[in-house]
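Supplementary Methods S3. Input chains for the assembly prediction are listed below.
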Amino acid sequence: MMDLDGFLPLVLPAVMACAARPLSGLLPPRTGTWLLTATGVALALASTATLAVLALGGALRLPLIAKLGHLSEHVLHHATETSPALATVAGLALVASLAAAGHAATTHIRALLDGARTARGLPGEGILAVVEDDAADAFALPGRPGRIVVSTGMLAALDPAERDVLLAHEHAHLAGRHHLFRTAAHIAAAVNPLLWPLRGAVTYTTERWADESAAGTDRARAARAIGKAALARNRRPGLSHPSALGIGPALARRGTRPGPLPRRVAALLAPPPPRRGLLVAATVVLVVLSVLSANDGAIDLHQLIEHAQAG
Amino acid sequence: MADGRREPGALESEIMTVLQHAGEALSTAEVRQRLGGELAYTTVVTILSRMHDKGLLVRTKAGRAFRYAPVSDEPGLAAHRMHQVMNGRPDRDTVLARFVETLSDEDERRVRELLEGR
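Predicted structure tokens for the full assembly:
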């Protein structure tokens, strides 16, 4: 019979949603990136499987399907797995989540291909493309080969040692294929909207991962480079700047939680993060529980079908 | 080349290829000649000036005629491309790993405090 733990895969993502931000700050960034991404993907798969089982259970009661499968309607009607109301809701949720996942996957793949095309078209031969622009900006563009784009405004804002930090940071993004982690987290969040906070958490851990790779032995220098770059970028507010949209004061209220950048600078000014084995283990247990529970649901349904075929 | 009725877009890219391989700025007559010489002179003029208007070509006055060159290696086009990349769709954020994002006023204050606090 269907018990409440069958719904675990639908509920655990909510737990993860609350845990994502704290985990992203506590774990070493590389571990955090792998763990949060894998968790997101596993929970998305488990919740999809659960929805599929619920929808399928209800579908069994449809006379046509029962007839085709030689299923006893008597057995099916007494099983809670086949609640038509539940199955309808689950079926709709399943369709919506698959559609959202498909859409997210297509837009991300398209964006990656666009990015790779742009990377090829950028000036210069090597990995670095310096672009004449007073606005301070820098980013890595994955592709074959990936490119690091830095504006002259950004180079002017940093001293040579800080520029090395910037280049090492962007290089770490490309070498670690961080865009793939981010894409996976986005698709998982599209599958199950409860996993939405994982997107920001994975983006943050990949930034931290690159920061830690770039820091080397001089963490304070890396903190300074990132801080100075951010302040330089803010000097020329574009449209994306909150104050340009007139929502600055609302976002700038004192007491709001710090955004990713102050957290990154603070993390570099602190000692390197410890391993946190227990925290990793606890998260893994949560994910395994979820996957097992989804599997249980499938086994239950399978047994019900066999029972109904015998009855 | 035998077919005179080509798509305007196809002609543009043919002209672009010609100019990119030329290694120097070309006059309208030279472009026309390198395209096979079958196109009307005025057609080539029209397309070249349209490409110039689009910002794809730069032109310099040489005597009485203009000479055209692709802008692909100009910083201006690179900056243009970079802005296209940066200000693209929101899902670009996953693709672009930006070094630093724009700060809110509150975060800007926090960063200043962190940097000065050492």
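Confidence is low (pLDDT under 50) at residues 237-252 of chain A. The longest helix of chain A spans residues 84-121.
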